[in-house]
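Supplementary notes for students who missed Thursday's class. We covered one full example, reproduced here. Read the sequence, then the structure, then the short commentary at the end.
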Amino acid sequence: MTPIRHSVLTLALLGSMLNARAGTLAQFHLRLGDILVELYDADKPVTVSNFINYVHSGRYQDMFLHRWEHGFVVQGGGFWITNRQTANAQFAAVQTFGDITNEYNTGHIYSNLYGTIAMARVGGQTNSASSQWFFNLGTNSFLDTVDGGFTVFGHVVAGTNTLDHFNTGQGLWFDNSLQDPLSELPVLSPTPTFEDLVYADISLPSPVKLQIHVGTDGARALSWNSLSNLVHNLEFAPSLKASWQTLVSTNGTGATIEVKDLTPAISERFYRVRVQ
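Structure (token representation):
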């Protein structure tokens, strides 16, 4: 940490969940709630880069979760709706960039445990992952030994309550009227329309960065980029050994949050942003 004016020091933290090697954050926006995922850029570079390419390219736009098995997985990245919210809406397959190399044994090896995200692929074909991925809804470590292992490339750091909807079934139904690969389709109504699909809008928010400026009035102006639909706690302490106290709690919108601390700037304070 580097001191700034009047010995004010800053910390920008995502609770205690992310460390110095924290990877890219991916936020999945569902009608059921948001899921925040940390991706393993350092350990699974090809897989993470591939996923990010799909997000940036727009090929996941109007994409929905198309496979759901209680206690096992919920899967997406394979299908989207063309002409959404029109009379001409139709199912379509996500256009892929081609297959990628399986990275299960690359870098640190991560098991297919609850709350992890892994690449889906064709059965029996190790290097066949492309656009599809799944969230593990339980301990699926047996997937670690199937055809070279299913590559885990991230884990949920916030929003397990949203993920748990797919274990409890609360607010969800199956649409059994379609054929494979949509025969295990989760929907949000017992009489679903296209708008009752479980759409997954994915964004890649920047890591939280706290900035402090001391004005001519002596007040500290604090600002940071927020993560949407998550509670942000701006906390302070007179020293790193002291207890943290909450200055303000507010819901993130994805925009910059600005707060003033009117305590005289001559007094030393440490700050951090803790995201719940």
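Commentary. The domain at 5-18+207-275 is CATH 2.60.40 (Immunoglobulin-like). The chain is about 10% helix and 35% strand. If anything here is unclear, bring it to office hours.
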